Amino acid sequence: MRADARDNRMRILSAAEDVFGRSPAASTDEVAKLAEVGIATVFRHFPTKVALLEAVLTQRLERLRDRALELADSDDAGLAFFGFFSQVVAESASKLAIAEALSASGTVAGDEAKAAGQGMREAFGSLLDRAQQAGAVRRDAAFPEVYALLVGASRGATATGLESDARDRMLALLYDGLRTGTS
Amino acid sequence: MRADARDNRMRILSAAEDVFGRSPAASTDEVAKLAEVGIATVFRHFPTKVALLEAVLTQRLERLRDRALELADSDDAGLAFFGFFSQVVAESASKLAIAEALSASGTVAGDEAKAAGQGMREAFGSLLDRAQQAGAVRRDAAFPEVYALLVGASRGATATGLESDARDRMLALLYDGLRTGTS
């Protein structure tokens, strides 16, 4: 891909994340406008709205995975784990809107989005391991239930329209539960 | 409604809860078979599948509300609160399947289901108040975040396909967080 084509692709993805994150039913036209490219350029990169939605979802999951991998080198394993958890929950409303738009179009996530999701889960699992080894998270908490809490906190906050201060209090409750018995 | 018509209606609702809870895309025909009534009888009571789904959802929410109201008289306010929380999460997979079938049909919950949902939330709020007064749940946990945790635990467990032992461990983590600082 030539440099200007790559640049266009990134602008379209970034605009699509913004537009569909706010309003999943928005049109590809709105994405083209925000990205300041012609609609033909959007369709050249993403032949359908579903293809565009999938690319946006994949990009978000990859970004979260990269963030988790970055944090895995952090000195404070507890801070890294809880910081990542909070970030996923804070960003979940627009991510869920995009996933919902995909499922409303009758599509399930494609292979790329699935692989990115798997990468994110694994990176989150490493953060959990390190936080447990450092004594910041209780050792009797296994991955399946901690991951269910991450997904659940995201969906619960979004489904009930939680304000950000209540979301912080919700996370504080959860984190106390995850720390119980560590000290 | 005559007694036999009432009886038929209850059998249809109970069969529909079973059938759609397992498989939201199931047909009204399967409901009629399980209820051992003719398909015409189903349509006499519920003209459309959407009407039937709404009635099932309303019935479930009313049943949960009634259970919460019953528990509000219990001597052990902590046990009542945590017991109800666990029951909602344990029953959530089939309830979410029914809600999903409704939303897949492009319908939002009607007035009856909404009123039943509101009644359930209020009854849950009373259980929380009593558990806090009894010192079984921390007093700095406000309703919005505790309710988001109830919804979130249900959705997280369902979305990640949590086994029942992992679900119990997830709830134990949550409950420790809700109890922190009470003793």
UniProtKB/TrEMBL annotation, chains A, B:
Name the record gives this protein: TetR/AcrR family transcriptional regulator
Q: Which residues form the HTH tetR-type domain?
A: 6-64
Pfam families from the UniProt entry: TetR_C_43 (PF21597), TetR_N (PF00440)
Upper lineage is:
Bacteria, Bacillati, Actinomycetota, Actinomycetes, Propionibacteriales
Origin: domain of life: Bacteria
Keyword terms, alphabetized:
DNA-binding, Transcription, Transcription regulation
Classification via InterPro entries: Homeodomain-like_sf, HTH-type_TetR-like_transc_reg, HTH_TetR, Tet_transcr_reg_TetR-rel_C_sf, TetR_SbtR-like_C
| DNA-binding stretch(es), residue numbering of this chain | 27-46
